[in-house]
Amino acid sequence: MLTYKAMYKFLDDGVHGEVLDYPGAITCGKNLTEARRLLAGALVDMAETTLLEGESLPVPNPSMTNDESDLEEPIYLILNASSQIKVVPETVYEVA
After folding, report:
1. What is the pLDDT of residues 16-68, one digit of tens each?
2. 3 pLDDT above the threshold of 80
3. How is domain 2-77 classified at the CATH fold level?
4. H or E stretch including 26?
5. 39 and 60 in contact (C-beta within 8 Å)?
C-alpha cells in the first residue's frame, strides 16, 4: 500500500480533486463523496497504466501541499497481483 496526498477544492458547480504527488490523477465530482470515489478510481487507473508501460510509480511525498486546496487528506493506493493460467491442451469431458 502506498499513501499519496489528495486535495479537494470546493467550487460552485462541484468538487475538484487531485492527487498532489501523482501527476495526472485528477477528477471532479458533484460533491465530496463522489469526488473521493472518482479520485480513487483515477489513481488506480493511472497506477495500472504506469505499470503496464513499464514505468515506476511516483514516490509519495507526504509533505506536498497546495495553498489553493480546501481539504487535504491521505489517499491509499492498493494494487492486487494476479496471474492467469491456461492449461494447454484444455481437457474435454464427454457427457455420459
Report:
1. 999 999 999 999 999 999 999 999 999 999 999 999 999 999 999 989 999 99
2. yes
3. Double Stranded RNA Binding Domain (3.30.160)
4. strand 26-29
5. no
Omega before 62 within 30 of 0, i.e. cis: no
Helical ranges in 19-93 per DSSP H: 32-52
Cell numbers for 63, please give them: 509533505
Alpha carbon distance 6, 56 (integer Å): 20
pTM above 0.70, yes or no: yes
What's the CA gap between 83 and 22, in Å, rounded?
26
Count of Cβ atoms closer than 10 Å to residue 58 Cβ? 17
